[in-house]
Amino acid sequence: MEPSRGGDLAEAYGYVNRSLPDAELGAFVDALATRISSFDKWAISNTKRLVNAASLPPDLEMAAGWDACIASVACPATQARLKAFMDLGFHKPGDVENRIGHYLETLNRCFQRKGQRSESRGGPIDTGRGQLSVQSSTCPHATR
Fold first, then answer.
1. 101: helix, coil or strand?
2. Residues 72-100: tens digit of each pLDDT
3. Nearest residue to 103 (alpha-carbon basis) of 89, 93, 92, 120
4. CA-CA distance, 17 to 86, in Å (whole number)?
5. Are strands 131-133 and 124-126 parallel, antiparallel or unpaired?
6. Of 56, 84, 103, which residue is a domain's last?
């Protein structure tokens, strides 16, 4: 769940087991890491092994899922969306990384709107940091 939806809501839905204010997060993580590092290494290793055995799919299923993921990423439509997202600033410090959910929704609207109109009738979408044109290289499907 993205941070803008709220940690308390994520906790209420059971997506996370604990929600903390930003100001308390660093100290909590430090204390947790210190506590875990004090445990017996053998116990930690075997606990991880048991959790993985109980929760991970068999290797055969994992491989099939991975293959499907890679095939999806190789699709031209996915590549176009990835390029557009990178052009917006994904994987760089800044607003896109800080508000990833907002920009994914904006980019998705760009691609959806392209499907609802001809290429000659493109229009800008407000991203919160300027206009994203459906005709721009930032929305590759617009020029397809």
1. helix
2. 988 888 888 888 888 888 888 888 888 88
3. 89
4. 32
5. antiparallel
6. 56
User: Given this model, what pLDDT does residue 50 score?
Assistant: 94
Q: 84 and 139 in one domain?
A: yes
pLDDT tens digits, residue range 23-57? 999 999 999 999 999 999 999 999 999 998 898 88
- HEC string for 40-93: CHHHHHHHHHHHHHHHCCCHHHHHHHHHHHHHHHHCHHHHHHHHHHHHHCCCCC
DSSP state of 25: H
Contact 110, 83 (CB under 8 A): no
Tokens, residue 110:
């760009």
pLDDT at 17 over 60: yes
| Distance separating alpha carbons of residues 132 and 106, to the nearest angstrom | 9
CA distance 47 to 65: 25
Prediction pTM value: 0.44
User: Are residues 138 and 113 in contact, defined by beta-carbon separation less than 8 angstroms?
Assistant: no
- The reply to whether 143 and 115 lie within a common domain is yes
Output the furthest CA–CA distance in the chain (Å, rounded). 66
The distance of Cα 87 from the centroid of its chain, to the nearest Å, equals: 16
